[in-house]
Structure formats: structure tokens, C-alpha cells
Amino acid sequence: MRKSFFAAALTALLATGAAASPMDLTIIDRAVADFTGAEVGQPGGAKLPVDRRLRLANCESALDMQWFGRDQRSVQVVCPGAGWRIYVAVDAGFSNANRMPQQFGEAIIKRGENVSILVRGKGFTLTRQGAAVEDGAEGEWIKVRASDQRTETLRALVLRPGQVGIDLP
Q1: Where, by residue number, does the polypeptide cross the bilayer (predicted)?
Q2: Rounded percentage of the chain residues whose pLDDT exceeds 70
């Protein structure tokens, strides 16, 4: 009887340990890279990988990602099912040692290029994928088309390579 009790206790302990396995943090790194359109350490991507010392509950549902902060220098990553939320710092600098300095007026978005369209309002930011209808340099307004729209175009401000924005009043 004593052996069966210990066997049952050990089985229960192992089962709870397996159920509480921590989140694979490389999944979060990949999700942030997909969201920002740039790899970790690259301009526009996460500054660093998620701290490997974190022990987050495994997320069974889809991660909810959105820009955080007025200057969008972080990505908020939320797992609604597990109840955790973290912030990943984003490298807002767009020049690196391997890239020549951008010439004034140089197009950083080309016609037909896939872009992230950010629609920002007071306290929120929505992100949608689309395509540039015309070339544009940083700070210029260009026409873009949302991915699921065939004819309607929007005017958006070129923020950085691969990203345009529309600010709502």
C-alpha cells in the first residue's frame, strides 16, 4: 500500500511538472521579429532576445502583439490564456555600420513593396499589412493599399523601411 501511494504521488508530481512547462522564449523572439519585420539586433527589430532567465507559463493561445509607447520603442507581448505580459525593446535606429548613410530624399520604400501600416490614435495602435503604391523617402506621404483591398488607397507617412503610419486625431 505504501508503494502505491508513493507511486501515485510521484506520478501526480511529474504530471503537474509537465503541465507547467515554461514557455519556449525563442517563440516570442520569432513572433516579435515577424511583427516588426526585422530580426533581433537588426534596425527596427528587438534590441536583444527575450531574457532567458524568464520562466513564463506556456502559452496555449495565440500571442497578442502590439506596439507600446508613444515612440513605439517597445512591443507588448501578451498571452491572454496564461495571464502574462512582457515588453520587448525595439531598436529604433535605422542606420548601422553595414549601411551607407541615407541620402536626403532617398526612397526607402519602393512601389509594390510589402509594408506594415500603423494606424495610431490616442492610446492605441493598430497594425495591418499592405503594399506601397508608390516610392517614398522617410518623412514623405505615399499611397498604400491594405492587403485585402483591391482599389482603395490610403495616404500614409513613411516612418522607416517597410513601415508607414497614419495618425488619427
Answers
A1: none
A2: 78
